[in-house]
């Protein structure tokens, strides 16, 4: 039995859900580059749930390092890697946030893949350090610029004009290709409201 070849795990990006699950805590999904393991291609990701950090705007975490207890201690991150038809627990002990740039927020994860808890005996529990880049939500300035660009693209002179153009486009799309004035198709009996 040996340690898992963790060098195979290379992150291609990460997405955050700031309020996930019944507790409303943050969650991260870290996409991994496909890799070969025992001559089979593996397409998987790392999922981290129950992160007790405010990640509504990850930029606020820049330069910070947070430590976490391991399962089952209160405050642990519920991490896992799906591998060989099993969820391998990932005990995350630290998340270190770098300085955001145009690509996103660099983050380093430290923890242990707990193969023993997954019943996978081919590997021993293996320490893991993984660097990844977390996608960032747009800033208010970026949202304003996108709105201005959309208004310009429609030829509208005001936001109200853009709304009218959107409404007109939506009305046209709702006809599903019917010519103007054509009757709507009948509603199937199974969809009608019963009294």
Structure description:
By secondary structure, the chain is of the alpha+beta class. Helix content is 18%, strand content 38%. It contains 3 helices and 12 strands; from the N terminus they run E-E-E-E-E-E-E-E-E-E-H-E-E-H-H. It has helices spanning 115-118, 140-154, 159-174; strands at 2-3, 11-20, 25-32, 35-37, 40-42, 45-51, 65-67, 78-83, 86-97, 105-113, 123-124, 126-134. Strands 2, 3, 6, 7, 8, 9, 10 and 12 form an 8-stranded antiparallel β-sheet that branches. A two-stranded parallel sheet has the order 1-11. The chain has a two-stranded antiparallel sheet with strand order 4-5. A hairpin with a 4-residue loop joins strand 2 and strand 3. The longest helix is centred in the last third of the chain and has 16 residues, at 159-174. It is elongated, with a radius of gyration of 24 Å. The termini are far apart. Residues 167-195 have low confidence and may be disordered.
Radius of gyration: 24 Å
Mean pLDDT: 84
Helix/strand structural class: alpha+beta
What are the segments in which pLDDT stays under 50 over at least 5 consecutive residues?
Answer: 167-195
Q: Give the total of beta strands.
A: 12
The helix fraction, in percent, is 10-25%
| Biggest sheet layout | 8 strands, antiparallel
Strand content: 35-45%
Order of SSEs: EEEEEEEEEEHEEHH
**C-alpha geometry:** elongated
Distance between the termini: 67 Å
* Number of helical regions: 3
């Amino acid at each position: 039995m040996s340690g898992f070849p963790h060098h195979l795990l290379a992150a291609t990006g990460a997405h955050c859900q700031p309020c996930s699950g019944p507790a409303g805590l943050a969650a991260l999904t870290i996409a991994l580059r496909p890799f070969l393991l025992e001559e089979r291609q593996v397409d998987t990701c790392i999922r981290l749930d129950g992160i007790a950090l405010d990640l509504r705007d990850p930029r606020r975490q820049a330069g910070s390092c947070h430590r976490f207890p391991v399962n089952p201690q209160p405050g642990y991150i519920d991490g896992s890697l799906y591998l060989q038809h099993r969820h391998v627990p990932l005990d995350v002990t630290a998340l270190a946030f770098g300085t955001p740039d145009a690509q996103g927020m660099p983050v380093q994860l430290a923890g242990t893949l707990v193969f023993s808890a997954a019943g996978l005996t081919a590997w021993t529990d293996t320490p893991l350090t993984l660097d990844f880049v977390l996608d960032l939500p747009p800033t208010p300035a970026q949202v304003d610029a996108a709105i201005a660009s959309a208004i310009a693209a429609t030829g509208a002179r005001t936001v109200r004009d853009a709304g009218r153009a959107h409404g007109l486009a939506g009305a046209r799309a709702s006809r599903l290709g019917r010519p103007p004035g054509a009757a709507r198709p009948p509603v199937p009996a199974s969809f009608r409201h019963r009294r």
